[in-house]
Amino acid sequence: MKKIVKGISIVLCLMFIFCIPVVAQSIDNNANQMSDEKMAKLYEMYGENNVKPDENAEENAKRTAQKLEDKEKFMKKIGSMDKSELDETDEMRYSLEYDIYNNRSLDYDGTLYYVYVPYHSQETSYWCGPASGQQTIDSWIECYQYVGDLPSQDDLADEMNTTTSGTSVYDYRDTLNEYLDDYYATSCIADDDDKYMLKDASIIGGSYDSAVTYLVVKNILPYYSGTTASGHYISGSGIWDYDDYDVDTVLLKDCNSNPTYGGLHEVEFNDLHAALVEYYETRSVANLIW
Predict the structure, then answer these.
(1) How far apart are CA 205 and CA 66, in angstroms?
(2) With contact defined as beta carbons under 8 Å apart, do 147 and 169 qualify?
């Protein structure tokens, strides 16, 4: 009997020793899950700059250039239109984008990476996760990348296991992936060294009609100044890239039901980065879904 007990003890000790790293690795992988499909998409997007040579780099580069040209034409169209020219079907899509674009000179020296994200007002005070998820899926529908019915916020809240305390970022990611072919991964924006990742994610979202989601402490953002320091999901609608973090700006589509905060906003890149870092420092979980 003593030998059996001793043998069991040895087995348990070995399991304890070897399982701890496995569990730690599992937690880390959950925070920064990168599926093979996601890596393949990034590989296609970045071409030869990614993890392996891209046999179709030239073709991908041409496709990327064409897509960016189309987007620039789209934004210039908005900038040159008079609101009276918009018909009822276009007004929802163009009006907010018109307002923000018309405040900027057409002879800008930056590059705009833009994705259209429809506005959906969150239906309860704690449904910013389901509402942002609904905006993301609707953006894929509008950009002809997803064929299917738009789920309700109630359905998404159920699928994301949302409670009055909010929505887990990992449930948010996993629910989006059920609809969008395992596209999305999560990453942690934790300090200044992660600015490059935030910028890359924002550019990819704008270039490839795949809206990113930011999980921030909202009162760090200027348009939320004076509000509570609560967490908030916000959809990314693109970035103005000037090759300078101090000059770059990011377009946000906020699902807040209060018109003071909801809708399209343009914020400085560094302000968004600070709001993300604050979320990570106070919660220690992923805060970028891309």
Answers:
(1) 16
(2) no
- CA 222 → CA 160, 178, 229, 233, 290, distances in Å? 29, 34, 12, 16, 23
Tell me, what's the pLDDT at 92?
A: 42
The residues, ordered by sequence, that sit 6+ positions from 150 with a Cβ below 8 Å of its Cβ are 134, 137, 138, 141
Paired residues of 113 in beta bridges: 239
pTM over cut 0.90: no
Q: Which long-range contacts (CB under 8 A, 24 or more apart) does 259-265 make?
A: 260/223, 261/223, 261/224, 262/119, 262/121, 263/96, 263/119, 264/96, 264/97, 264/99, 264/100, 264/119, 264/237, 265/221, 265/223
Q: What is the pLDDT of residues 204-247, one digit of tens each?
A: 888 788 899 999 999 999 999 999 999 999 999 989 888 899 98
Residue 230: phi, psi to the nearest 5? -100, 160
Instruction: Let me know: does 60 contact 76? Beta carbons within 8 Å.
Output: no
pLDDT band for position 62 (cuts 50, 70, 90): low
pLDDT in tens, 6-32: 344 444 344 333 343 333 333 334 444
- One-letter amino acid for residue 83 of the chain: K
CB neighbourhood size of 134 (10 A): 25
Structure tokens at 64: 């990327």
Cα–Cα distance, 150 to 152 (Å, whole number): 7
- Judge contact between 75 and 93, C-beta under 8 A: no
CA dist 201 and 123 (Å) reads: 28
pLDDT tier for residue 288 given thresholds of 50, 70 and 90: very high
- Integer Cα distance of 123 and 121 in angstroms: 6
